[in-house]
Design brief:
- The protein has about 190 residues and is mainly alpha-helical.
- The chain has one domain.
- It has nine helices and two strands; from the N terminus they run H-H-H-H-H-E-E-H-H-H-H.
- Strands 1-2 form a two-stranded antiparallel sheet.
- Helix 2 packs antiparallel against helix 5 and helix 3 crosses helix 5.
- The chain is elongated and about 80 Å long.
Length: about 190
């Protein structure tokens, strides 16, 4: 150890500064990784509780005869479409809304959430914003604005979703829009 100290003190001041800054950077990065690991574990613990609650609610609904209209394969495909809309730079809010319009009842929505599970959303290559990892409700809260910028005619959208989507800009769609579509379809679920 004293040999390393002698080598360090024998270096020019600029080299000592570079070593000190590098050591500080490595230490701070280690602290960041520990913090990120703890945060991720807490989020995943909450995600498991959410998954268990959804499974329980789906089972209760099934026992009352309230079954999903979509197959599990369809829900997995919808969950994949939503994840693709979130992944990378920016969120394709239109694609998220279009995916959710396929749900016809609360059981469909819950089964889509269950199919989504916990996924990591890339913030985009070289983006300093960290990736997000979580369930579908958490991802929607993280990726979409609370409300859109424009006025959306939900009734016209429900009658003709393709024309309704074409008339909207990405900024017209937010969480509130998805919730309005659910309410119009009498789906008792809100993000």
């Amino acid at each position: 150890m004293s040999n390393a100290k002698n080598i360090f003190t024998g270096l020019p001041p600029w080299a000592q500064g570079v070593i000190a800054v590098s050591a500080t950077a490595v230490t701070l990065y280690g602290v960041y990784l520990i913090h990120k690991t703890i945060k991720t574990r807490k989020a995943l613990k909450g995600a498991n509780a959410e998954k268990n609650a959804i499974t329980k609610e789906l089972n209760q609904m099934a026992s009352k005869g309230q079954l999903p209209t979509l197959s599990k394969a369809q829900c997995i495909a919808i969950a994949n479409q939503i994840h693709a809309a979130f992944d990378g730079y920016g969120t394709d809010n239109k694609a998220v809304l279009a995916a959710f319009t396929k749900a016809k009842n609360k059981a469909d929505v819950l089964q889509i959430i269950e199919a989504y599970g916990v996924r990591e959303i890339s913030s985009g290559r070289y983006n300093p914003e960290p990736n997000f990892k979580g369930t579908l409700p958490a991802a929607i809260t993280n990726e979409m604005p609370e409300s859109g910028n424009g006025i959306l005619n939900i009734a016209a959208f429900i009658v003709n979703p393709i024309a309704g989507l074409a008339a909207m800009s990405n900024g017209d769609i937010g969480i509130e829009t998805i919730n309005k579509v659910f309410a119009t379809k009498k789906i008792d679920f809100q993000f």
